[in-house]
């Protein structure tokens, strides 16, 4: 289970368009260097390093230093954990509500049909031509 602080760090990291772009680069080029990422932006290398720090602190990027070069890898686990948490909880909420709406619609249809003297016919059928 992801802690609220960790979740906040992931959302904060993903709130920046530049950091999302950095993540896309690292995802598409696993093991790329910091210099390779920095060369894609019109900002200083230090500015890119700050974005990388935020992404690393959120656990979205893992780096492996070999010699003088840091190789970057995307870690999708935090995003997957957030996805699982939110989709599971909200999917359950909405499927329960959809079931309630379906039951309500069916009971109204049955009630409207009975009022018209046609059991099982709904209000939607009112005004339609019966042959």
List keywords for this structure.
single chain; 131 residues; mainly alpha; 5 helices; 3 strands; 11% strand; disordered C terminus
Number of continuous helical runs? 5
Q: What is the residue-averaged pLDDT? A: 87
Measured between the Cα atoms of the first and last residue, the distance is: 61 Å
Query: Uncertain runs with pLDDT below 50, 5 residues or more?
Result: 126-131
Please summarize the sheet with the most strands.
Answer: 3 strands, antiparallel
**N to C succession of SSEs:** HHEHHEEH
Order of strands in the sheet with most strands: 1-3-2
Instruction: Indicate the percent of residues in helices.
Output: 55-70%
Q: How would you classify the helix and strand content by structural class?
A: mainly alpha
Overall morphology: rod-shaped
Q: Report Rg.
A: 27 Å
SS elements, strand count: 3
The portion of residues forming beta strands comes to 5-15%
């Amino acid at each position: 289970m992801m802690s609220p602080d960790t979740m906040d760090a992931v959302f904060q990291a993903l709130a920046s368009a530049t950091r999302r772009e950095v993540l896309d680069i690292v995802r598409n080029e696993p093991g790329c260097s910091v210099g390779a990422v920095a060369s894609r932006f019109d900002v200083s290398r230090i500015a890119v390093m700050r974005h990388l720090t935020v992404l690393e602190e959120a656990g979205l990027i893992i780096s492996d230093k070999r010699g003088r070069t840091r190789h970057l890898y995307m870690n999708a686990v935090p995003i997957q954990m957030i996805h699982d948490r939110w989709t599971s909880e909200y999917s359950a909420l909405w499927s329960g509500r959809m079931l309630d709406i379906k039951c309500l619609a069916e009971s109204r249809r049955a009630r409207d049909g009975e009022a018209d003297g046609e059991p099982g016919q709904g209000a939607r059928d009112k005004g339609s031509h019966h042959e």
